[in-house]
Queue: 2 jobs
Job 1
Amino acid sequence: MLVEITKDSLMNAVHHVIKAVAVNSPIPILQGINIQAGADGVSFTASNTSMTIQSMIPQDGASLTVKRTGAIVIPSRYFYDVIRKHDDELVVLEIKEQLILTIISGHSQIRLCGMDSAEFPYIDNGEGLSPSKLQMNSALFRSTVKQVAIVASTSETRPILTGVSFECHNNSLNLIATDGVRLASRTLHIEGYTNDSFNAIIPAKNLSEVSKLLSDADETTEIEVSNNRVKFMANGLKVESALIEGTFPSTKNVIPQSYLCEILVDKACLLKAVECVTVMASENIIRLVATADTLKLLSRTAEIGDIENEVPLLKMRGEEFIISLNGKFFIDILRNSDCESIRIRYAGKTSPIVVLPDDSLMSTLFLITPVRTHN
Amino acid sequence: MLVEITKDSLMNAVHHVIKAVAVNSPIPILQGINIQAGADGVSFTASNTSMTIQSMIPQDGASLTVKRTGAIVIPSRYFYDVIRKHDDELVVLEIKEQLILTIISGHSQIRLCGMDSAEFPYIDNGEGLSPSKLQMNSALFRSTVKQVAIVASTSETRPILTGVSFECHNNSLNLIATDGVRLASRTLHIEGYTNDSFNAIIPAKNLSEVSKLLSDADETTEIEVSNNRVKFMANGLKVESALIEGTFPSTKNVIPQSYLCEILVDKACLLKAVECVTVMASENIIRLVATADTLKLLSRTAEIGDIENEVPLLKMRGEEFIISLNGKFFIDILRNSDCESIRIRYAGKTSPIVVLPDDSLMSTLFLITPVRTHN
């Protein structure tokens, strides 16, 4: 291998894949980054047991020139730290001795001991399989994942709840996540989707990483779902994630179909008030009191004090209500809603509160189970 | 107490004093902030056993109006978090019921349970004592503390080394700190200093906090040293710190008086090179090789690899040398030197390396003890 590459391109690629490096893996090769220089460009790949990320830099003569092909796996942390400290524009990567990568940049020369590239896990190219394929605007995908993945469980006691359910049927894709107390659901219309229906449960952690890798530019993300894995592809990036096996709990009977009251409030006002009131909330429990024209928010902590805040209602339809819920959970939901106003539906003391971001698509729904309090 | 105050002034004052709050103190009152509203303004005070910080906002009719005097100690964390979340410009602080502070801001009302202000430690006004007094430009004081305090020890095994020695004698102030491996010393000329000589050892941690509180503006810091404490005053701020008892180790025989070689290098180049080489350094040990026109930096980690970097010499006087030292320590020193170039003096294999920032004052000296290596 003999490759000339600009520092920016190299840093960008390494920065993308380093999220998938299995830092504490007992398998040494998974602590590395697989660099493969071919005639068409250089790929950088990192992999842990759950996710593989690959970033490809095409040979364009400007940011990259491949003078001799080759491949090696090198220790990620040292490589990243060394490159990061350099400020020379051009970096030369060369394999002169077997399994040793020489990095020359400006006045410095680094020799890194590597491992055999052939032993590194590769991204399956799916020969012989016929995966379900769909395409989505990257920005839309990013915002959808941000909204839904936030409510997935982080506890491994029920592994299925650490995933986000993707259910595709008749040109519509439904994403659902829940941790048992909260639920988020968003339905998107998919154009040009031709294959069969599918259900897949994708680890929320991997999904969040994928969405962070997507740039905000107006590009398209391709998604391929096969039996036990999902692949995301956009703009030189390929991410493969394992799927979670099992059946996602049915959420049909959980979402209240009718309601006793609906209120509409300004989102920014409400978020500020909930954040403020949650500071003083014992165990994060805050109380909402909806009257004819205001939503009162209250909380208290014994021996410390109490707080009361008011948000004006934009609309109110139905009866007044009082309910207690987890303020932190409410903040998570509001922070991830890109909209001007929020619709809140009350369906009775023991039913979950329905929160609907009032955006142009109206495709997102959140549930929060109320907390029972004594007084 | 009934006080109207702008959010910015309030946040600023609380932000200053919160560093001295004893968050985990078994004495509940030390977890609080003492608010005292008098005819001339409102003071905010926080104190742990080692340091007390007081920020005073004068009554000017614009940012603060005191309508009724009074005092209360309130829980710092809740107060800070609640005020921070508000975006209303004006905050009203009022004591309506005994030991309860009511905070009204915009649409929210908070009641915080407080404690008796009379039980809070106060900053000694020094009646009956005649402290040594001196004045210094705040920016100069800040940069001096930054340079010297960084090498103080953080281990409590020898408490005296966690302090910075202030030695004032004949209009000159000498600051020294050392952790046994490194040493930093800076001598400043003090104008208008009239009192007797003094020696004081100030905890480096407190000193760093003080220097962070000082703004970069062209103001003056007053320092008052009495028997067992030191007071810093600048721009409405008062900080009082306990002193460390004992005698600071003599450093006279530690600093080499003659040298075999002196080199001059560009600071930015050297810092970049040391940072880069230290990444690959086993136990942070890097090797410096000074030849006629370059300084070579080398390091290696077994089974990972090695690195070599070069910095051109601006000047070289004396014999070539090779020495090994702790790269992290070298980085600390270089990062805190505001100068174009660095002078390095070599006085033999077993003598400490002398590092002199080549700035206009030429008043700072660093020592690093070399590491003995086998090859």
Job 2
Amino acid sequence: MQAPAAPAGSQQDGPLAGFVVLDLSRVLSGPYCTMMLRDLGATVIKVEQPLVGDEARHFLPIAPDGRSAYFAAINRGKKSIALDLKDETDRRVLDQLIARADVMVENFRPGVLDKLGLGHAALSARHPRLVYASISGFGQTGPYRTRAAYDVVVQAMSGMMSITGHPGGAPTRTGSSIGDLAAAMFMCSGIQSALLQRARTGLGAHVDVAMFDAQIALLEGAIPELFCSGASPGPIGARHSGAAPFDAFRAGDGHLVIAAGSDHLFAALASVLGSAGLTDMPQFSTRALRVANHAELKAVIEQRLAQQPVAHWLGQLERAGVPAGPLNDVATMMRDPQVASRGVLPPIEGGAGQRAPVTPIVLSGRPYPAQLPPVPALDAHREAILRFAAGEATALD
Amino acid sequence: MQAPAAPAGSQQDGPLAGFVVLDLSRVLSGPYCTMMLRDLGATVIKVEQPLVGDEARHFLPIAPDGRSAYFAAINRGKKSIALDLKDETDRRVLDQLIARADVMVENFRPGVLDKLGLGHAALSARHPRLVYASISGFGQTGPYRTRAAYDVVVQAMSGMMSITGHPGGAPTRTGSSIGDLAAAMFMCSGIQSALLQRARTGLGAHVDVAMFDAQIALLEGAIPELFCSGASPGPIGARHSGAAPFDAFRAGDGHLVIAAGSDHLFAALASVLGSAGLTDMPQFSTRALRVANHAELKAVIEQRLAQQPVAHWLGQLERAGVPAGPLNDVATMMRDPQVASRGVLPPIEGGAGQRAPVTPIVLSGRPYPAQLPPVPALDAHREAILRFAAGEATALD
């Protein structure tokens, strides 16, 4: 039903081309997951409440033209239809769409969709091939299942905030919403694993991802530390608990980061610093000793670094093969030659200059898209989606 | 070749059952990705350098029995074989394994495997169905492609550290290694998308995921903020840039977090605080105004919170449906009733009591495993893997 040439921003040749995702999710965790699926080639039909739409349409920051730049970054390329889940006519459309979908994604509180007759039990009986994906704060089971959660709640409860920040300092949240994003990323894997399973068994699945569980799954170092020491680790600034030097260091005109935990890299760093003797000092002679004596080691390193600016050291460290880098702000990162070369942040079509990150998966050398597809206005694709729902069109893209 | 009953920790009924993953990766990003694939049911053959093995086998923290608890948490359930990639006999085994694998995962610096005749170009010619997955610091293309990166380097260069921490404070790294883990999670999705594509086309793919790009992809709020304001956002402690109140707050005996950005939740919070008038104050009357006046709002809220302990407020907030939670340390999180009920942290078989987080994806109500499979000693599965490589066994699990 489309012109033979793929429209700008089309992912018809992406690995998930042909899969249809019905997206009932709102705000961040669900929409980020369906953004990934869209970027990988799936068609995503975003079902929104009439008039208001996804509440993230009204979230800060707001662009000069009045739309939410936050919403735009995460929802480009989706097809929007406004449907009232409690209205009989709209429900018939939704039921048609469910029948045509491979995947349905939702992030309501557990139980909400059951009451509307849209729970997994009801739908799987009628649509056994459907992959039904539920992201929630605490999961579909357990004593907290009906509690709502937002990012900072799971960052706090998981222990993630207890290991982020500085010793004795105020509570610190990771600056991005990794509570939502980790759940979104795990769900994207969970959905695809269910699709691979369906290819074998013919049956869909209910995929249950909890933001809380997802955050705990990221504690790759802290949980082993507690096991070994018997004490919960605390925040350690920019350091790593298991490697040193692996931290931010002050040079002549600012900070840089250096990651030289192995004996080999530590020797290369010592050579760059003109402190070859560093590797002979008994307190720094093994990885474990460098971690134990990290404060003394940092003082010695910063004494040398103070003598030259950051740019000098980064050049030297790069030549020596020592992993290091500048502490970029977001604007500096966006001008970075590597970011430009890979095209990590294409402009959004019709986005008045707004750029957004791609889903960072390059397949077989196919570059990231030069432009991201447009952001749907609320209900923008109503007619096309109705035709698709009724079986009058075979595809939306 | 196994007893008909699945052994403890077997994932033979997981969604990726039957897929074979050849894992040449080391340390964290690659191994975390293959841990996810294993937890989802795939067979993972871990190829390690002789004698030393994956260098993470020697990483802190070290358990009382002398093994790395860090390594254990990420490598449980994999099958290990030691192979010297430069030895002719070992290379024949590796070539046999490649021929039998669906997926190969590696995180060497770009170019290293090409020099050994194990690059994507060489292998895809002989094995067109192979999904070849490469995680690197900066990707397979661009001016930085041959640079090494560790977690703190991409957290710094991406701008993630520029938005994490407190205004005017020292540089702060997220306490977990999200530089590695985000790349691992994107790669897990990338691999599965390539497998789904292969089911349609019969052809494998080269999947290229860069830690740097993956970190940029997590800046869901900061990049839109720069677009709208023209200035790079800075660190804001435990706050959220687009919602308030959404922060850590001090109560009578410690901190808690509250996420009540919407008008509805803000009204519920005001009611819990016994400050119904809060919603009538003009400076707090909209979401945007609450964000603009967040410091004043925090002071008002903390004045009320100071009058009772954390536990009091958490009970009240839960009853009112306001998302909130305690700032748990890792030990407290591990005792949480929800964590116990879902079984998020099962013991590792043979792990002397060590627990590790599951891959947080529940499929169709199948609970997380009650026990995680054992951690392989270096080269522990040599004989079985050699039989599998030679075609004398059809499966390893």
